[in-house]
Amino acid sequence: MFLIRSTFGTLLTALLLAGCADSNTGMTSDPAAQAATTAAPDPAALAGQWRILTLNGTALPPEAAAEASLNFDTATNKVSGSTGCNRLMGTYATSGAGLTFGPLATTRMACPPNSPEAGLLAALGSKTLTYQLSAEGLTLLEGTTPVVTLSR
C-alpha cells in the first residue's frame, strides 16, 4: 500500500512541476497554438523594392534575376515590378501574416523560353500566401513551403 501511495505521490508531483514549467514559459507543444501566438509581421516593413531571388526553391535565370522585382506601396496597397521579362502592376492586401495579391496585370512582350514569368504569376495568384520578414529578406510561403524569396 505504501508503494502505491509513494508512486502516486511521485507521479502527481512530476505532473504539477511540468504544468508549472509550461505556465511559466508560455510554451505549448501544439504547433497550431504556437503559430497563433506568433506576432504577425508589420505590413509597413513591406514598403519599397524587393529583388526576386528564387521561385519555388530555384534561383531565377541570370537574365531574369537582373530585372525581377516587386515594389510595395504601403500607402495605396499597390504592387508593381517586373517578372524578369514584363512589367507587372496590381493590388495587394495583408491580414496578419497573410498576403493576397489582387488581379495582376502585365505588359505583353515576348519572353524567352526559360522566363520565370508564368511561374511567378501563378505563385502570386489569387491564393493567400504567408509572408515572413527576416534579416535575410522576405519569404512568401504557401503553407510551410517557400514559393518566392526576395531581398532588398
Question: What does this protein look like?
Answer:
- The chain has 152 residues and is an alpha+beta fold.
- It has a single domain (43-151), classed as Beta Barrel (Lipocalin), CATH 2.40.128.270.
- The chain has four helices and nine strands; from the N terminus they run ααββαββββαβββ.
- It has helices spanning 2-25, 31-37, 62-65, 117-124, and strands at residues 48-55, 58-59, 69-73, 78-82, 87-95, 98-106, 128-134, 137-142, 145-151.
- An eight-stranded antiparallel beta barrel has the order 1-3-4-5-6-7-8-9.
Furnish the topology, listing elements before pairings.
Layout: H1 2-25, H2 31-37, E1 48-55, E2 58-59, H3 62-65, E3 69-73, E4 78-82, E5 87-95, E6 98-106, H4 117-124, E7 128-134, E8 137-142, E9 145-151
Antiparallel strand pairs: 1-2, 1-3, 1-9, 3-4, 4-5, 5-6, 6-7, 7-8, 8-9
